[in-house]
Sequence to fold (112 residues):
Amino acid sequence: MADKYPPSGCRWCGIAERSHYRQFTPLAGWHVHTVPTTEQILARMRARRAGVPADHRTARILVLDHARLLSYLKPSDEWVDVHCEPLDDPSQDRAHALVAAGALPDFEQHVT
Fold:
């Protein structure tokens, strides 16, 4: 079975082109598969090499980061979205794993 969230997955949702069809995300709305940027592919490859699961959580975090809609609140040690809403606990853990893998920039680049 093919990987649902490969490094070459959609720019907006991370889903592989072959199984993409039309998807909806709050960021892009209804969309067809869109080729990811080189930076997104490299971040996804770093995450994969570090053993971070390639799933909807990882894809969402990397898409938010690429769109500059992900921030880190240093005092509370939390990752937040564009509305300053904290990500859920599993996503917090995943974001920390992505930083450790080098797939997300260091906290200092995201501090709000």
In short: Residues 17-109 form one domain. Residues 28 and 105 are 23 Å apart (CA to CA). The helical segments are 38-49, 56-66, 89-101. The mean pLDDT is 86.
